[in-house]
Amino acid sequence: MRHPLSVILCVAGALALSGCGDQDAAEVDRAFQDVNAIDGTKLNDVMMTMADPEEAVNYFRRSSAKEPERIDFRRGLAASLTRAKRPTEAVAAWAQVVAHEEATNDDRVDFADALIRNGEWDRAKATLDAIPPTHETHQRYKLEAMIADSRKDWAKADSFYEIAVGLTTNPAGTLNNWGFSKLSRGDYAEAERLFSDAIRADRNLFTAKNNLMLARGAQGNYALPVIPMSQIERAELLHTLGLSAVKRGDVEIGKGLMREALETHPQHFDAAKRNLDALEAS
């Protein structure tokens, strides 16, 4: 009988909550045996995106051992290792995926992504160079931009970032990366614009908010911009501005921003207190 996705979600949720219930790995595997091929594919998607990364790794590793010819299990294992922040193992797993006869260009792009996460930039570039130029995706161009950044080929980086932004409906992360690229080049005004664009695209992207403070602070602008932020975020952003002020030599301004951060934070803000104490002691 075909199980509805809601049932699969419940099973996946039970698997993710380790310590809840008495089923061991073998019993969980048996529970999956009744899932038909269509719902099995849905379960794979759930495990890759919603389950605890380590649980997903265990699930796909067991599944791959039982059916090593299935590329979806190999792909799931590789993706789960990436999510679990185990880059060396992820590279090895993606290498097995791309060696499979059913491997796609998307798999090769994901392999390049894993290589970058593992610091293997040259190998990542060679992997992307081997993919036909007709394969135009957001992920491909974002990685191309990052590789160009690593080589300080700024013209290519900007071109690739622009293309990548145009190929996605969720450009916040790419805009943030592009902004950080500009920040690293010393183009603070352009970095500020890109970080602001990233926040407009995703108001919850704290990394872009923090980077925005770095860009503004590097220009000597220590005023908080009008952006959505929680009280805790406000305190953390004030702290970042304070650090930027100190870096520019505006020590007293930096101290004032850190004091404001301490007063703003609803809890104890250890990093701000520690840095402020160090400044006052010196």
Using only C-alpha atoms, the radius of gyration works out to 23 Å
Please identify which CATH superfamily of the domain at 1-119 we are dealing with.
Tetratricopeptide repeat domain
Low-pLDDT residue intervals, each spanning 5 or more residues: 1-22, 31-39
| CATH class term of the domain at 1-119 | Mainly Alpha
Per CATH, what is the topology of the domain at 1-119?
Serine Threonine Protein Phosphatase 5, Tetratricopeptide repeat
Estimate the global geometry from the Cα principal axes.
globular
The amount of beta strand, in percent, is: under 5%
Overall mean pLDDT: 88
* CATH architecture grouping of the domain at 1-119: Alpha Horseshoe
**β-strand number:** 0
- The secondary-structure element order is HHHHHHHHHHHHHHHH
Q: In angstroms, what separates the terminal alpha carbons?
A: 72 Å
Please describe the biggest sheet, giving its number of strands, its sense, and whether it closes into a barrel: none
Count of helical stretches = 16
Helix content: over 70%
Which structural class do you get from the secondary structure elements? Answer: mainly alpha
